Amino acid sequence: MNRHRLVTGLIFGLAVAGSPPNASAQQFTTKKYAEAGGWTIQVHAADGQFMRCGAVVPGGKVSFEISSEGWTLSLPTAKPAPADEVKGALEIDGKSVKAAYLGGDEGRLMTFLKPAQLKQIRAAKTLTATAGQEQTPGPLAGIDAALRKAGECNDKGGG
Fold first, then answer.
1. 113 torsion bin: left (phi>0), alpha (psi -120 to 50), beta (else)
2. Would you indicate the residue range of the signal peptide (predicted)?
């Protein structure tokens, strides 16, 4: 009888140890907050918790996002998001500066923007983001209004 319990206990223990944990992947959601200057302002959440707000370039996938960590430029990538940083550049109205991109959620790359860069972008007409070998252009007409609205969205926690 004791041997039967021991064998049953060992089999049960091995079955539990070999089963995958019940952790699930985060669920990311995006919803529209407003429109400003032709741009779409979006709220991003993970598992129902507010993360950040972003202003999406009209007709494009480039976005400028604000969170408690500051402003970022976020862009799509054709490759899987890397574990390490990707070297690149930001070209604002023809003037290029180095940039380092990190893998973000939902297969995107992002780089933090310094206050001086953000000031330049607010007054610029064109931007080209280069990450590794990928180049992503972004027209900037209406960006100042869009960034103000994204800031408002962030201040309100997306609501």
1. beta
2. 1-25
